[in-house]
Amino acid sequence: KQEVTQIPAALSVPEGENLVLNCSFTDSAIYNLQWFRQDPGKGLTSLLLIQSSQREQTSGRLNASLDKSSGRSTLYIAASQPGDSATYLCAASDSNYQLIWGAGTKLIIKP
Amino acid sequence: NAGVTQTPKFRVLKTGQSMTLLCAQDMNHEYMYWYRQDPGMGLRLIHYSVGEGTTAKGEVPDGYNVSRLKKQNFLLGLESAAPSQTSVYFCASSLSGGASEQYFGPGTRLTVT
Q1: What is the nearest CA distance from A31 to chain B, expressed in angstroms?
Q2: A59, A80, A107, B59: least surrounded by Cβ within 10 Å?
Q3: B62-87 pLDDT, tens per residue?
Q4: In angstroms, rounded to a whole number, what is the distance separating the alpha carbons of residues A44 and A65?
Q5: Which region among A51-60, A62-71, A95-104, B74-83 has the lowest average model confidence (pLDDT)?
Q6: Chain B residues with CB inside 8 Å of A32's CB?
Q7: Would residue B16 be called left, alpha or beta, if left means φ above 0 and alpha means ψ between -120 and 50 degrees?
Q8: CA separation for the pair A57, A52 (Å, rounded)
Q9: Among chain A residues, CA nearest to B36
Q10: A32 vs B99: CB contact, 8 Å cut-off?
Q11: Angle A91-A35-A82 (CA atoms, 0-180°, nearest 5)?
Q12: Using CA atoms, how far apart are residues A97 and B33, in angstroms rounded to an integer?
C-alpha cells in the first residue's frame, strides 16, 4: 500500500532564503506526483504536476523534482517571500489514478 | 468561471442526524472527488465519480453515500452522522483521471456533536 510522508511537519525560514520541501513515497509505481498549496481556511491549489516519465517541472520560483528510484520528490522555492507562507502538500497518483496524500509541511516565511 | 463550489461552508450536526453536501463545477470535468481532511493527516478519498451516473468507493467510504445525477454536481450524503465524521470535506474535479490536474473547492467544515 502506497504511503506518502512529508518531513518536516513545519518549517520557519527568513524571507529571501531558498528552501526545499521533501516528499517521500514507498511504492515507486506512481502515475504522477503533484504538489499543492493550502492556505488557512481555503481549498487546495495545484502548483506542479510531474508525470512519472519526467524528472522535474518548473513554474516561476518553484521547481519540483521526481526521483522514482529513491521514492522522493522535492519542491524547491527560490527567494522565499512572506506570501509563500502556507501548507504544502504532495500527493502521488497510484495505478487506480487515485491520489495518496502526505500530511503536509507548514511553511512560515518570516519578514 | 466559479470553478468548484461547495455548499454549505460550515455545519454542525447532532449524532444521528443526516445531511447532504453539494459540490458543483462549471469546467465540464468528467471526474469528481470527495475527500476528508483531518488534523495531522493527509487528505483521504471518500468516493469519486468518473462520469455522470457513475460512482466508486475510495479509501474511507463507510458512513457516506454519493450521487452524480448531473455531470456538474456531486453530492455527498451522511445518513446518520457520527462524531468520527467531524472533519473538513473537500470536493475536487478533474478533466480526466491519471494525468489531469485536480481543482478543489473551498471546503466544508462539519462538526458532529
Answers
A1: 7
A2: A59
A3: 999 999 999 999 999 999 999 999 99
A4: 20
A5: A95-104
A6: 98-99
A7: left
A8: 11
A9: A101
A10: yes
A11: 135
A12: 12
| Distance, CA of A54 to CA of A74 (rounded, Å) | 13
The pLDDT of A46-64, averaged and rounded, is: 95
What pLDDT, in 10s, does the model give residues B2-37? 899 999 999 999 999 999 999 999 999 999 999 999
CA distance B41 to B28: 30
Q: Which three cell numbers stand for residue A101?
A: 496524500
d(CA A79, CA A64): 15
Residue A16 — φ and ψ, nearest 5°?
100, -20
Give residue B39's pLDDT: 86
Q: Which of B97, B99, B107 lies closest to A51 in CB terms?
A: B99
Kindly tell me the burial class for residue B25, based on how many C-beta atoms sit within 10 Å of its own C-beta (0-12, 13-18, 19 or more). Answer: buried
The CA distance from B58 to B34, in Å, is: 9
**Paired residues of A4 in beta bridges:** A25
Tracing cell 457520527 back to the chain, one arrives at: B82
